What does this fold into?
Amino acid sequence: MDHIRMDLRQALRGFVKNPGFTVVVVSTLALGIGANTAIFSLMDQVLLRRLPVRDPDRLVILHAPGPNSGTFSSHSDTLMGLSHPMFTHLREQNTVFSGMLAHYTVPLHLTAGARTDNVHGDLVSGSYFDVLGLQPALGRLLGPDDDRVPGGHPVIVLGHGFWTRHFGADPGVVGRAVRVNDHAMTIVGVAPPGFHGVEVGQSVDVYVPVMMQPQVLPTWERGVGDWRTVWLDVIARLRDDVTPARAQTVVNVLYGQLLQEDLQTVKSPSMKFRAAFLQKRLELRPGARGTSQLRDESETPLLVLMGMVGLVLLIACANVANLLLARASSRQKEIALRLALGASRGRLVRQLLVESTVLSLAGGLLGLFVAAWAATFMLRALPSDQAALVLSADPDLRVVAFALGLSLLTGIAFGLVPARQSTRPQLAPTLKNETAAVAGGTAPFRFRQGLVVAQVALSLLLLIGSGLFTRSLLNLRAVDPGFRPDHLVSFAVDPSLNGYDLRRRFELFKRLQDDVAAEPGVKSVSMAEVALMSHDNSSSTVRVEGYERKEGDDMNPDFNGIAPGFFATMGIPLLAGRDFADTDQAATPKVAIVNEAFARYFFGDRDPIGRHFGLGRETGYGITIVGLVHDGRAASMREKPSRFVYVPYTQEAGVGELTFYVRSALDSTALSGRLRRLVQQADASLPVTSEKTMAAQIRESLFVERMVASLSAAFGLLATLLAALGLYGVMSYAVALRTREIGIRVALGAERRTVLLMVLQEVAVLAALGIAFGLPGGYGLGRLVQSQLFGLTARDPLTFVVATATLLVTALLAGYIPAARATRVDPIVALRYD
It folds into this structure.
């Protein structure tokens, strides 16, 4: 310990004496470690962290893939839930789970006093908190007695964060009456701190018993008690003596029996559907990390970014190793003298490793501030307000431990080789101040050249990756969505959550449409049930008159309920037929407008106007096609134009929320305030949500692509800069080593141009070697991220050419300065050079 304290004191004295060297090394490491820590912080919260519940490793998620007949609703693209009767039977009859919970995320309107807010709710079974093993922060949590009678349990539990934000952490909220979707309910407790629900990336504000589904989801005709409505996400806790594999085997025996009962509720199933339905099996997925749509969307991008920042750190380590080798060359006489006086080589290696570790720890400490700043920047860019409430940019103990471990590993990685190489001087020549010996010979220099080649290769890898992601984003931005997003503002209202019946909803929607249309500067206004570019869609099974369904046919086009004037407002061309009119009401014949893809699929080259189709759950062909519109993208910019059916929202039975689209030449900020005032005039207790321009909505829909492209570009530029600095340092050192040779060449008549080209040729060789090693890796990276790209392949020629040219030009510019310095060598001074 005494020796280590001496090494620490000596290291600190050395760094104080060389502040420039210390600042460069610490800053370089801070950038590398900070970038890694920032990405790890997000990855840890989204991908790795377990739920803050009792023994989370015993939780499993039930996934029920396979065909269904009826209504399906899910908040995840990768998880198929269960109907309420199926969940109830499995919970009561299984022998492998100690408990099962079910939940479903819902938007709610909560009125406390005179204030009504749109909040994030979760319908939960009475077993929810018990299965998770949670204790209340205040009052009590929901239990089995709160989940028995449909509509008979008007009680709620507040999320801890919502209780703090909305009620100021008032302990008197327990027993207080509030209105949820215009129904009187009582607050009975507050959930524990740190628990935001079982869906990562969402923060539940209010927990409501599943049996209150008719009150909470007024637009749903069915739900609780209906086998044909699949909507609940289900998590189970394994018994202590049961493995996941055994549980899956045993529970599928019961599931198979329940499918027989389930099939009895399907209307006239075909033999093929019957066979496929009865062959369904439950899959048990690990549930320790909960469920998460955010995780599904961001897992691959985060892993790619983590790999990229890892390469940045490798490049930073190579740069620091180069700097340490350069510093060691100036300390060769000191090291030789200590060896001559009896110091062991191991003792000197340890001292140099202490120095590199101190530098890395300092870089790691500064890197924590860099990480917090970078993570804050990324969180602010998140399109979801819910994710911003749950995710934190502040480093916790796990993140600090990661940064500390990475710093120690980095200190050893970049310090070991320079320490070993610099403690092998030739004692006699070094003590006599012979230049070649003092410089350490050619071995360290060759090693430094190898580091530069590695830096160039890794930098090219990052430039290719950033180029692919950037070009993919540009391709997405250049896609024609099929409508005009300019000067288009949207907002949403849901009067069904304020207790409006269907007639009052339609009256409110019509009043708002007329009031908005009458505003000065507004050109047109319309509405839609499914918001565009929100990654949401709604589909229904159709039967088309005159079309014979073939094996494997997809008879489920996308649907959207819209108001008259929708196509004119959105700038979607109406190609044939007519638009909807105010006379298209529930009591009039049903009509629809289809897009070109729908018409081609079912009618070929024939005119679709006047043809008929019906919905799968109805008999006959009661819907008449009255219009044809141009194809476009609805859910996202990535999707291909799909078959689409538009129907009047006034002929829909379950209309709840509508999104208004307003085309105006006015400034969006000024218009937004006026739109809110119009809604407040219609109903002061009706919250306005999702208010934004369509351009902003498209940007948000491309959030993942924008994040990956911008961060990978930043990492690529940082890596290129570090590689350029490394190349500059090596070439400056090379020029110093060859000072005598260059002087002799100049004295013998060599032109300065020849000297310049001689040095630049060495630069070009190092860059070419790095490029040769980096190109195959770039192609491999492209193959790895192919699924994330849009409109280009993994070996996109333009990306590879631009990345290679950028790196080669940067390398030549970095080498030009020492090359130009070499041309100014004075022959007389060089010939005296020792």
Notes: Residues 109 and 557 are 32 Å apart (CA to CA).
